[in-house]
Each structure stands twice: as structure tokens, then as C-alpha cells.
Design brief:
single chain; about 150 residues; alpha+beta; six-stranded mixed beta sheet; two-stranded antiparallel ribbon; about 20% helix; about 40% strand; binds zinc ion; YceD; DUF177 domain-containing protein
Length: about 150
């Protein structure tokens, strides 16, 4: 999903809020979304770049790592990223890759940014390493003894 930054870019200090559901589908990444992907973001024009901060939330179906049953859970990821026009050239990109912890996303020529890729990455990173349907999930063996 693309966001138009034209107004925010007009002068330093301009701010805007984004509060929307994204029409996305991350099935190709193995994410089974069971609810809308909602983003609540605050944009600030700092002069050299646009700061984007807030969070993305959704609901997904996961498989319990103990009993292997599917269950749904909420995912929430914090977002704090920087977007800039100055990363348009490949030379600038190369320089940016050298300092990875300071990654800046590009703003397109038409003053838009694409949130889909950012949201995709943040959601994948927020997936639990060992998902559990319950904190005290008895696991697959006890389930079968019932
Ligand atoms: Zn379980």
C-alpha cells in the first residue's frame, strides 16, 4: 500500500497520522492472517527525512509448537523507520548499506512510500519463535490420553 507524503514533505515540522487497515495478504510468507492488518503511524518531517513511528497489529493463525493444533493469536510490531528522498541514487544506496543499523527507506519520485514491504518484514520479525496455544499447553502426548 502506498502512502502519499506530498503534504508532509512541504515544510519541515509537518506531521501526519496514518490509521488504516492495509489490504495485504502475506500467504506467500506462510502468514495466515485471520484479521485485518492495522497500522497506526505518526509521520514527522525532520528536514532531511520523514520519520515514521507507530505500530502494526494483526491476528494470525499459528500452529502450537507443543500440541501442533492451530490457534489464533495477536501480532504486534513496533515501527520506527526513516524515509528519505536522498536515497534515490544507487551510489547513495551503496553508502547506506555500509551502515546497516541506520537504514533509510527511499521515498519514490512521486512522493509516495510503500508500506507493504516494511509491514511484511516487521510482522515476520514479530512472530513467536515457539508459538504456544496456551502458556500451559500440555503438549501432544497428554492431549491423546484423554
Ligand atoms: Zn498447544
Amino acid at each position: 500500500m502506498k502512502i502519499d507524503l506530498t503534504e508532509v514533505l512541504q515544510s519541515i515540522g509537518n506531521e501526519a497520522d496514518i490509521d488504516e487497515s492495509l489490504p495485504v495478504d502475506f500467504a506467500a510468507d506462510g502468514l495466515k492472517l485471520t484479521g485485518p492488518v492495522k497500522v497506526a503511524l505518526h509521520l514527522t518531517n525532520t528536514g532531511g527525512s520523514i520519520l515514521l513511528a507507530g505500530k502494526v497489529t494483526t491476528e494470525v493463525e499459528l500452529e502450537c509448537s507443543r500440541c501442533l493444533k492451530p490457534f489464533t493469536t495477536k501480532l504486534e510490531a513496533e515501527i520506527a523507520e526513516e524515509f528519505s528522498h536522498s536515497v534515490q541514487t544507487s551510489q547513495a544506496r551503496k553508502e547506506l548499506e555500509l551502515k546497516e543499523d541506520d537504514f533509510v527507506y527511499p521515498i519514490d519520485q512521486d512522493n509516495t512510500i510503500d508500506l507493504t514491504e516494511l509491514v511484511r518484514q516487521e510482522l515476520l520479525l514479530s512472530l513467536p519463535f515457539k508459538p504456544l496455544c496456551l502458556n500451559q499447553c500440555p503438549g501432544i502426548n497428554k492431549e491423546g490420553e484423554k
